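job 3f2a | input accepted
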Amino acid sequence: MGRSVRPELSPTQIEPPATEAAVGWLLEGDPAVRWQALRDLSGAGPGAVEAARKRVALEGWGARLLALQDPGGTWAQGLYLPKWTSTTYTLLLLRDFGLEPGHPQALLACERLIEEGFYRDGGINFWASYKHSETCVTGMVLSVLAYFGSGDERLEKIADHLLAQQMPDGGWNCRSYRGATHSSFHTTILVLEALRDFGQFSPHRAEEVRAAQERGREFLLVHRLFRSHRTGRVVDPRMTHFFFPPRWHYDILRALDYFRSVAASFDARMNDALEIVLQRRQEDGRWLLPAGYRGKIFFELERAGEPSRWNTLRALRVLRRYGGGQHGPAG
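job 3f2a | predicted structure (331 res):
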């Protein structure tokens, strides 16, 4: 269709000899990383993966976060604020860790979010000064409610609200209430993750939710994941850096990892983003962590400027799914 593609990469460029050592390094990490490396990179069987996943609640980062929960079910005594220690952001992190759905502490926190945040328009609104739900927050909250398996019937209404907020260009924008007519990368990735998790939670809505996600992914692809669809310029250089935790922010690795998580087919418009992922790999097969977003945290997961297990895990599984671009997975 006239799209330019870069030369095809060889299998050794996509998975160089250093990859084996990098995977071994991941398997020595926190349980939150280890179980996902077993599942996505090592070929381990389901039994080994599930046994490793159970450790998330018992050891390391996951256990530390669970131990910090307030008696009433929140974290930092807040639903959305303070950033980044509130209940919403802690649950997002526990989701990314892979804490098992149905965990009682997570469900207690989910109950607090929906009881205090569900708004009359069907979305989530934690602020008395707002006369409408906030789309980004609604996406984040629906994601954790669906992921952890909240049984509240209002999840259907929250999903309906987000589906109704989809814009003509296929994405979402939390500033549509202020007159925005072009979707936001940030809002779109949050809603796409929410619809992914809701689709797994409510399979009877699968076709409807899948169609909305396809339109949302097309919005990102039209922009080659980080470029203006009009000029081709990079929309925001920060989108080409891989932050973890990403909080509410969008970046190309987060987007590619979402595409992978829903088994989306390779598209040549991913090439520019995949090229950046490949370029950021160090000689030892690992990826570094840039300085994260400012705000209070409970504890540091990894140090900025040093090799990152989170970035290495996500980058390797993205490359394993999509190869080096051009024609999709190698082999």
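job 3f2a | The first strand starts at residue 287 and ends at 288.
job 3f2a | closed
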